[in-house]
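Troubleshooting log. The previous structure file for this entry was overwritten by mistake, so regenerating from the original sequence record. Sequence copied from the archived sheet and checked twice against the printout by T.R.
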Amino acid sequence: MSATVEQLCWAGRHLAELGLSPGASGNISVRVGSEVHLTPSGSSLSRLDATALSRMTVTAEGLEHVSGPRPSKEYGLHGALYVRDPEAVCVVHLHSPYAVAASCLPAWAEHSALPPLTPYLLMRVGNLPMVPYAPPGDVGQAAALRDLTVDCHGALLQNHGPVVAGASVEEAVARAIEIEQAARVTLSVGQRPEARLLAADEVEHLTTTYGQPWGVSTTV
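Regenerated output below.
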């Protein structure tokens, strides 16, 4: 599917209105033809200008700045997901509060930082591995995301927040919102032993029906 810079600006406003992009945090990119348009460093997602985005190109290693303002220092995360998935046309990285809080806790499993408590994480996201902590903008963390062997659309960055890709702007935004909601449910339930996770056959039905990856099967 194709994407436009106008859709990127809509996504920024929408996520900001939902309270998922506090201050000048978070960044979004879209792939338009051979170029990637990325929110500039220090920009607020609520006030994006389609004519003032950083223009990048995808290389074998990630993204390279072509023109426009200085890109967000997190551009390596975007490049990692575009390299992983040639079908991806949008990447969303947020510091949404519940997902950030969940990223400060131990991962539930190798393939997913969050447990399968409700159907929707499985229907819209699937695997969501935890990537070990590194300072924002760290090139090693971007490489770790790019080289994940777990089949996934994105990840939860430890002590940082989520980053996720989609085959459309709407899909990437929906996944980012669902990660926040799943994290909120996880934190609300806590470590209660009586909490019911979806059973293995229920998980398999959902992920098969909706075509999302789940489990430790690898992509390479």
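The first strand starts at residue 27 and ends at 32. Archived copy saved in two places this time.
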